[in-house]
Design a protein that fits this description.
alpha/beta; Rossmann fold; three-stranded mixed sheet; 10 helices; globular; binds guanosine-5'-diphosphate; binds magnesium ion
Length: 298
């Protein structure tokens, strides 16, 4: 008979912070897989994404969240609700920041002051800083917030990632695993595919274009070891459709080639990818579209 394991630890750890501090990079470093897309642009992450760190005696469920901002439209409101939800559901909070003060930081501090859960402050991008600056920053942060512990890391260079895991284990409850031990994310293959396409759009377009696109899958068919994926890119206006497609379709072609390469690597199969650009007039502020795209549940 199987005896109950009384030392196994499992729990949820929310990674929060302002945009662009490296939350998604950290999630990928912790899981050693590319689960969350990363870009130098703010607000790349639109939904909370789970990455699961499995080991013999523990399972840590990390939740990467959208960067904390003051919302200006309905989509951003749903993004901030997903941050709130993850703060409520979590066992430990990781507040990721850098050695620089950010103008949105007070919103983060206000949220954290109301929550009585262990908070770990991480100073990321330590590769671009020094011990003195980091120490100074940590002591300044301590003036406004009481936190359980702090650590300097570099998500990009995977510095102190193991130390972070050890640190988290000091605060993680004894609990059976929440997920199957071989599972490393809650993202479905389809979600990973649409996120790959969104990442290419974030890389190759400027200004409002990346923020105006939503990607959905219309058809996914597997025939003779080849996968045919028909996707739609929804934009807010006609003018954006023209920019996205580019002269003679050259710009969208680049997205298709790069996305197909990454999707083939993900699936390990030959992929035929179709991208169809559609106008969903003002979708970021419209309830029906936000529901259709899965940002609102009812
Ligand atoms: P998020 O908005 O907080 O999820 O941030 P991302 O993970 O998308 O990263 C934003 C940018 O910061 C990207 O260009 C990353 O490559 C970069 N970045 C993340 N972590 C580090 C780090 O440890 N060092 C440096 N130098 N850059 C980093
Ligand atoms: Mg992110």
């Amino acid at each position: 008979m199987e005896t109950e394991n009384t030392t196994f630890q499992s729990g949820f750890v929310s990674i929060i912070g302002v945009p662009n501090v490296g939350k998604s990079t950290l999630l990928n470093a912790l899981i050693n897989q590319k689960i969350a897309i990363v870009s130098p642009k703010a607000q790349t992450t639109r939904r909370a994404i789970i990455g699961i760190h499995n080991a013999e005696n523990h399972q840590i469920v990390f939740v990467d969240t959208p960067g904390i901002i003051t919302p200006h439209y309905a989509l951003q409101e749903t993004m901030m609700q997903s941050v709130e939800q993850s703060l409520q559901d979590t066992d430990v909070i990781v507040w990721l920041t850098t050695d620089k003060i950010n103008s949105n930081e007070n919103i983060v501090v206000e949220k954290l002051q109301k929550i009585s859960k262990p908070i770990l402050v991480l100073i990321n991008k330590s590769d671009k800083s020094d011990t003195e600056k980091i120490q100074h920053r940590i002591s300044q942060l301590g003036d406004n917030l009481s936190f359980a512990n702090s650590l300097a890391i570099s998500a990009l260079h995977k510095f102190n990632i193991e130390s972070l895991i050890s640190l988290i284990l000091n605060y993680l409850p004894i609990h059976p695993a929440y997920y199957e031990l071989e599972q490393f994310t809650d993202q479905t293959e389809r979600q990973l595919i649409t996120e790959i396409i969104r990442e290419k759009i974030l890389t190759h377009y400027q200004e409002e274009i990346p923020y105006s696109c939503e990607v959905t899958i219309l058809e996914y068919k597997e025939v003779d070891n080849q996968v045919r994926i028909h996707t739609e890119i929804h934009v807010e206006r006609d003018s954006q459709k023209i920019i996205l497609i580019g002269k003679n379709g050259m710009k969208i072609k680049r997205i298709r080639i790069e996305a197909r390469r990454d999707i083939e690597a993900l699936l390990g199969k030959t992929v035929f990818l179709e991208l169809y650009v559609r106008v969903a007039e003002g979708w970021k502020n419209k309830e029906n579209f936000l529901k259709k795209f899965g940002y609102l549940t009812q």
